[in-house]
């Protein structure tokens, strides 16, 4: 399929497939494709806390594109096809596995709270956790027993998801380490991609500072959504810095107050 000639569909005539807290999915230009639109909404604590942070969607679209394109390039399958514009990307339509897969390298957040381990403690090894995606229940943590008993994923799919999670963690840890950032933990989602009678599990949704904990190696400064969750301020500045370090934003082309300047590709 040639995705370089994507037909432009005006926003008003597009069919909206799904609207989540941070993104909207529209019908794509070809069967089996969707358009993923990044909003500026920031939510936390199951959307009890909500704020519009102008420019966040643009940064997450760009950072997530960078990560997913690199994952595709090293052979980790994802739903990502290409970025379309400032806020949108073309993706393959998948059936989302109703799990949030969290990988942790350093203790923080809910793990620190639940087990009383001080934030910042290096974990003996990377730990994978599963949460059932259900807003009404507040995304409860579940075990493989729950996942297979309730049919959210098969044992084989859980194996595939864990193998993907380890590869994504290895890639992301190295990527961020190279730009002076510690990958504390992250959340990913997976989908079932159906292709000529075949099904495979791919990485879906987004990977961005909204879904990772990123700490500056030198200062331990938080560069992720905890700035919003914990009312630290400076979220846009932190996300912009992540994008700059990854080489996505040009450093000196940002007149004060004009918002982030994106490198054209
Ligand atoms: N996460 C979990 N649900 C939504 C998101 N974004 C991410 C957090 C953090 C990791 O999963 O951003 O990077 C673990 O979160 P927690 O709250 O369980 O410690
Ligand atoms: N649970 C997610 C978070 O805290 C989002 C939300 O609760 O709205 O990142």
TrEMBL record:
It catalyses: 5-amino-1-(5-phospho-D-ribosyl)imidazole-4-carboxylate + L-aspartate + ATP = (2S)-2-[5-amino-1-(5-phospho-beta-D-ribosyl)imidazole-4-carboxamido]succinate + ADP + phosphate + 2 H(+). Keywords: ATP-binding, Ligase, Nucleotide-binding, Purine biosynthesis. SUPFAM superfamilies: SAICAR synthase-like. Pathway: Purine metabolism; IMP biosynthesis via de novo pathway; 5-amino-1-(5-phospho-D-ribosyl)imidazole-4-carboxamide from 5-amino-1-(5-phospho-D-ribosyl)imidazole-4-carboxylate: step 1/2. It holds the Pfam family SAICAR_synt. Its EC number is 6.3.2.6. The keyword Nucleotide-binding applies. Residues 17-245 form the SAICAR synthetase/ADE2 N-terminal domain. Belongs to the SAICAR synthetase family. This is Phosphoribosylaminoimidazole-succinocarboxamide synthase. It comes from Afipia carboxidovorans (strain ATCC 49405 / DSM 1227 / KCTC 32145 / OM5). The lineage of its organism: Bacteria, Pseudomonadati, Pseudomonadota, Alphaproteobacteria, Hyphomicrobiales. The gene is purC.
